[in-house]
TrEMBL record:
This is DUF1178 family protein. The lineage of its organism: Bacteria, Pseudomonadati, Pseudomonadota, Alphaproteobacteria, Hyphomicrobiales. InterPro entries: DUF1178. Pfam families: DUF1178. It comes from Phyllobacterium bourgognense.
Length: 137
């Protein structure tokens, strides 16, 4: 995806995301791109400086990612501490809980992609728990 800085014929500035330069051109020609302020379809691309991460920006990104990983790790730990492990019976047990056939409680375990998709289709709320490399130590 490419972010373009755009402007309309009334000098309103905004941004848009497109798969490619050609994608923008095609959509603009078909009048599918419009100004969010005035609705004008006369939209063009403005000059944009490329986004280059500096050393300081890279450091901020690394710190933010480390913090996010720590928070995810803590969330997964709390779920595991406060839920019942049901192993490969996860999909079956989650469905029973959802339909009131089993006690309402937090569970975690393993499920295949097909099982998870079927649960979602049935309206069962599920969420993958992250597994970190040091979780296996």
């Amino acid at each position: 995806m490419i972010r373009f800085s755009l402007h309309c014929d009334h000098d309103h500035e905004f941004e848009g995301w497109f798969r490619s330069n050609d994608d923008f051109d095609t959509q603009a020609q078909k009048q599918l791109v419009s100004c969010p302020v005035c609705g004008s379809h006369k939209v063009g691309k403005a000059l944009m400086a490329p986004s280059v991460a500096t050393g300081r920006q890279k450091e901020k990104i690394a710190i933010a990612m480390s913090k996010m990983a720590s928070e995810l790790r803590e969330m997964a730990k709390k779920v595991r501490e406060n839920s019942d492990y049901v192993g490969s019976d996860f999909a079956e047990e989650a469905r029973k809980i959802h339909f009131g056939e089993a006690e309402q409680r937090g569970i975690y375990g393993e499920a295949t992609r097909d099982e998870v998709e079927a649960l979602v289709d049935d309206g069962v709320d599920v969420m993958p728990l992250p597994v970190f490399p040091d979780d296996h130590n």
